[in-house]
Amino acid sequence: MTRIYTCFPEGKYKALTLSYDDGKITDRRLTDILRSSGIKATFHLNSACLGASEGHRIPYITEEEVKTLYRGFEVASHTCTHLTMGRTPSAENIREVLKDREKLEELCGYPVRGFSYPNGVYDSSLFDLLKLCGISYARVTGSTGRFDLPDNYMAWKPTCHHDHGLLELTEKFIRTDYDQRLMLFYVWGHSYEFELNHNWGLIEEFAEKVGHRDDIWYATNGEIQSYLACARSLVFFADMRGAFNPTATDVWLNVDGQLRIVRGGETCYFNREAAASVKHSANGTGRIFSQVSENTPSPERGKDFHVITIPSPSGSGKLDAKLKAWRDSRPPKSEGNPYYVLGEPIGDMRDNMDQPSLDISAGVASRKDEICGVPAWICEPEHQTETEKAGRPCFLYIHGGSFVGGTAEAFLNVCRYISQKSGALSICIDYRLAPETAFPDNIFDCLKVLKYLRACGHYVFDRNRMYLGGDSAGGNLALACAQLDYRESGKKKLRGMALYYPVTDLTMEEKEWTWNLSDYEGAAQDPEKHCCQSLKGFEPMILKLYVQERAGKENPLVSPIRTPDFSVYPDLLIASAEYDYLRPQVEAFAGKAAAAGCSVRALRYGGMNHAFAGLTGIVDQARELLDETADFISR
Ligand SMILES: [Zn+2]
């Protein structure tokens, strides 16, 4: 019998949320504390009180600052004027809620659907009234002292007020290791209480203890309510072989001890046999089903490590049909560019590296620039407001090309699409190539740009949301950059890295992984066989042209798989391709990073070969991977 449990996102079973009322200026300090600990919260505001200071010991925040102050959090209603409901006429209650929603929505730009009862006063006649006003959940006061999900979202009672055993409950929440049920830790209060009671230290200690943990889902009240509503909307097959997700939110399940993601709008089959029995539609999007691979060794630590295999629409065990057709249409390799360096035909190598891609983005502006002397392509969504620009992430991309070739322009379509989907400022750079420029100067080019972007105000983005990306050799350079960036300050300043089939091992010792053609399903014949082997034996050439004996091949800047301490790396998104020579070393690197405690999301794209990410508009999986990347940097 199949046993299915609902999980929070990423397979977690613990969630934390906070709910703070009234919108006083002390929210400024509270949002700072929460933001720096990665904790999410909902703030319930009285829109008619915004800006008021006279007669109040602690003034209200102003309308102008609502959007920026609460960015990344949820703004919800608390009635317009802090009306105590229950002894007031229904029409007045309705007016107070709708007027508050309208004003707050005008300030924030999204529908406001949360509520908390002013002074905690409510009765059951208000439940339907609030629902008719478009409210999906309403918080009451008091403390349950428990970590339960609510039975009634219209009278959602928190775990505790922050003055009622907060730190003891925090200890208990962190210590509990019982994944049979979903746990929600829900804290409420008013930020002005910290000021009046001189106990800001309490919430700081709480944030320090409970923030930035891999096993907790940090969410706003509304995100929790909405995620669980989506999870409840899943439509299961009668024999539990799979489920259809009619919502737009991915839902995570534990199916017989294995994690499964049921993607929004798609049907997920829980095992290979069920999937194989289904005919794939010819116009499928590529994400017919997603599942966590059974044959991937699970690391000892690193709870976020999942290899998610994404089969090609043409079926598993062979090259994707669109990719095959594209390969077949390629002109033969050109020869005759007489540019040789160190005895190697660099001209021909470079000429044969171009990969035409199509622009699948819309509403994105791109332009050429130069950053610290490094040529760059700058991409950003058109028509972003100054506030949106100040809050957006920055995605710095380092292109691949075996260290000797490739251009930023070839990845312009990749960066444009990521900017469109995530709102990020995306920058792709032309670092100097080997062999004319050798290790470590190529890394220094990238690091110089990274540091400049962070230090200088010329490009507007949120300095706490800096991401580094790269494919193949570019992934290797990105990992080296991250090591040096950490070494300088002893701190992880990058928020995350998106690495597409990065070169992680040039030692040729295969200590952490082994390569066998027989490990690739269906690769006994071409074209799969050719794809698996196309990079085989490339290492001596790279060492000769790129490293040029300036470092040992075991140096972690050359072979990041030998990184002595993986805690230098931020959160990682790592993609591998089924028919890529590098796949074993890429997945071994992901496993090592996860075992060392890094947060890793590892994706294996079925039917793909090396360098598929750049084939935007040609293979669907390129867009899939860029969608994943946009999700990753939008967090
Ligand atoms: Zn209140």
Question: Characteristics of this structure?
Answer:
single chain; 635 residues; alpha/beta; TIM Barrel; Rossmann fold; 3 domains; ten-stranded mixed sheet; six-stranded parallel sheet; globular; binds zinc ion
Blueprint of the fold:
Elements: E1 4-7, E2 14-21, H1 27-36, E3 41-45, H2 66-69, E4 74-77, H3 90-108, E5 114-116, H4 125-132, E6 137-139, E7 160-161, H5 166-175, E8 183-189, H6 191-196, H7 200-210, E9 216-218, H8 221-232, E10 235-236, E11 242-244, E12 251-255, E13 258-262, E14 267-269, H9 272-276, E15 291-292, E16 306-310, H10 321-328, H11 346-351, E17 364-371, E18 374-381, H12 386-391, E19 394-398, H13 412-422, E20 425-429, H14 441-455, E21 466-471, H15 473-489, E22 496-500, H16 528-533, H17 539-547, E23 571-579, H18 583-595, E24 600-609, H19 620-634
Parallel strand pairs: 2-3, 2-8, 2-9, 3-4, 5-6, 7-8, 16-24, 19-20, 19-21, 21-22, 22-23, 23-24
Antiparallel strand pairs: 1-12, 10-11, 11-14, 12-13, 15-16, 17-18, 18-20
